[in-house]
Amino acid sequence: MTPGSMLKHPSAFLPVAMSLAALAIVLGVLVLWGPAPQADEGAAAHLWQFLMALQVPIIALFALRWVPRAPRQAIPVLAVQALAALAAMAPVFWFGW
Length: 97
Hints:
elongated
């Protein structure tokens, strides 16, 4: 099994998709309202938080299931998941939201 074929498993691709959705939310807020902090956390902030927090148990499930079985294939997938999460978090930290 290759890392690419391992990404077909839901516990592998769902965190990446959720990170990309969270990044799209952040970019959408940037386009619509600009980088200025909002007075109140809106639905976009809560949705971003939900998407990011829900990834943790999914990634843990993936790691517990696949790292013992196929570590050479699972570690690159975990790296992709981590990079996607960092990409979704970077604008939030950059703009101090």
